[in-house]
Amino acid sequence: MSKGIAYQNKDIEFKFMSETFREKSFEAYGLKLPRIKEVLPTNLPEVSANEKRLDHLFLLEDETVAIVDYEAEDKLANRVKYVNYIARVMERYLKERGELPNLRMIVIYTGDVEKAKGVLESECITLRMEQVFVSRLPEQMIYRRIKHKLEKGEKLTEQELMRMIILPLAVKGKDEKQKRVEKVIKLAKLIADEKEQTFVIAGVLVCSDKFIDREYAKRVRGYLSMTKVFQILEEEKREAILEATLEEKQRTAMRMLYKCMDESLIMEISGLTGDEIEEVRKRLPIAQHQNM
Questions:
Q1: CA distances from 99 to 39, 88, 90, 106 (A)
Q2: Percentage of the chain with pLDDT > 70?
Q3: pTM of the shown model
């Protein structure tokens, strides 16, 4: 389902997270769920202008689809938002696959929320949420252990990498989260494995997107863009754009060849060379060749 996604907002981050979240586990957050199989695009149909798209959409190994949202408040409006998300994911699946997915709604609460109702009930619908309260994680102990290991040059476990991503959410208040983001990203730069380092930093940006300073996030993305990992993905992006442009030119030339138009005009309009047009001509049906 994620194949053929157009590169757009946060495209490089999405591609990177798609590759690195694969086979990761929510167990680091206290949820016993199947491992992540794939990261799905979060652009859903009919999102209103004043509404942000959902934070994460994952396909799990048991083929269930997990909607993940990060919240700093427990309020009824959020539950209405989740119902909208669920309806839109269902709409996408029904349109693209002709079937409805088995869905999970996962809410990860920041340190601002210590408890919340996990069920919303009405006569016509029951919404059950699987909740993570980051405030319950031993945040200081986790940070100290990770810092100690990195300063000794030791490799972090998958669980530690996953927990680093949400550590900034464990504190209360936007200002404190900003400070914690900066602290965790500074620590992440000690990770020797560039792919793991980039995973943590990009993950912090994505998971803390609602709570951090835009200018700071811009600077961190500038740092990420200098890593080899992101440069490779950027090159893949450029190649994909060039390939898409070439395919469009070839389709234009094909249509003009079908109409037996003059080759010089085809070259002028499509932007292809004579040799490239000849290659397109070879792909025409035999009957069409005979008419030329």
A1: 19, 13, 8, 22
A2: 80
A3: 0.70
